[in-house]
Amino acid sequence: MEDPWQKPYDFAVSVARKAGAEIRKAGESEIKVCTKSSTVDLVTKTDERVEKIIIGSLKEEFGEGTHCFIGEESVAKGESCILTDKPTWIIDPVDGTTNFVHGFPFVAVSIAFAVNKQLEFGVIYSCLEDKMYKARRGKGAFCDDEPIQVSDVKDINKSIIISEHGTDRTPEKVKKIFSTMQKILCIPVHGLRGSGTAATNMCLVATGAVEAFFEIGIHCWDIAAGAVIVQEAGGILLDVDGGPFDLMSRRMVSANNDVIAKRIIKEIEIFPAERDDAPVQKKC
Ligand SMILES: O=P(O)(O)O[C@H]1[C@H](O)[C@@H](O)[C@H](O)[C@@H](O)[C@@H]1O
Ligand SMILES: [Mg+2]
């Protein structure tokens, strides 16, 4: 039987590469910065332009009617963020916008594709490092066409863990984030890290450079592609309460195995984050 998703997968890789080249070029000129949900949730013209390029190319190739699109900047402008059974592209045009603005060298283009709410493939182009990560469900994970594999460490005391602070600086939430980090650091683990992009963090789990990455407050476009890449590299995804991973829940633990994941989960202080697919509240 013909493989229906090979063409979209190959196309996603070429679009991600094209988008990454645009980001690199834009980084050479002055970057005008605006904000979204908070004063530290940054957005630039490049985020918007690159998302338009990606969605425009996908629509041209696959038609507007049959495929749906969830893109970070389109959702910010009021488009729907509901995952249906239709073939759906989930896109973060510039993951690591703060890094991009500051010239911190980890910025990724993240493109995932889901059908019947199941993620079929994920492509992450770490464009400043020029590394192309990709995975298709059931077919393994790759970096620049070389197979990648999570680490086999089961001893938490020999692990490196990644987390991020996010863009919600409500003092009670920040307190919980730092309390969690303090507890994990004191297990003790070898180290705590953060690249500033959820997509790249997940690739670091997938290559075995770190054992786990967790965050509360991320969005589906930050982690959809990484979810496929981590699982295809042999890793696992869980909710921060140890339950099943839910793409729209804005919380996730990705790890090399369930021993590491469950040990981390013991220390996570959970705080609320509104779901990506929550009904939009009408403004008065
Ligand atoms: O850079 P963006 O696409 O906004 O995504 C980042 C997110 O906003 C932050 O909350 C996370 O901490 C980063 O890891 C994301 O990648
Ligand atoms: Mg992002």
UniProtKB/TrEMBL annotation:
Protein's cellular compartments: Cytoplasm
UniProt entry keywords in alphabetical sequence: Cytoplasm, Hydrolase, Lithium, Magnesium, Metal-binding
Domain of life: Eukaryota
Main location: cytoplasm
EC number(s) on file: 3.1.3.25
Cofactor: Mg(2+)
A molecular function (GO) term: inositol monophosphate 1-phosphatase activity
Pathway(s) annotated for this protein in UniProt: Polyol metabolism; myo-inositol biosynthesis; myo-inositol from D-glucose 6-phosphate: step 2/2
Residues engaged in binding Mg(2+): 72, 92, 95, 222
GO BP: any one term: signal transduction
Cellular component, GO, one term: cytoplasm
Reaction(s) this enzyme catalyzes, per UniProt: 1D-myo-inositol 6-phosphate + H2O = myo-inositol + phosphate; scyllo-inositol 1-phosphate + H2O = scyllo-inositol + phosphate; 1D-myo-inositol 5-phosphate + H2O = myo-inositol + phosphate; beta-D-fructose 1-phosphate + H2O = D-fructose + phosphate
Enzyme class: hydrolase
Family stated for the protein in its record: Belongs to the inositol monophosphatase superfamily.
PANTHER family, A to Z: INOSITOL MONOPHOSPHATASE, INOSITOL MONOPHOSPHATASE 1
Name of the featured protein: Inositol-1-monophosphatase
Source organism (scientific name): Stegastes partitus (bicolor damselfish)
Taxonomic path: Eukaryota, Metazoa, Chordata, Craniata, Vertebrata
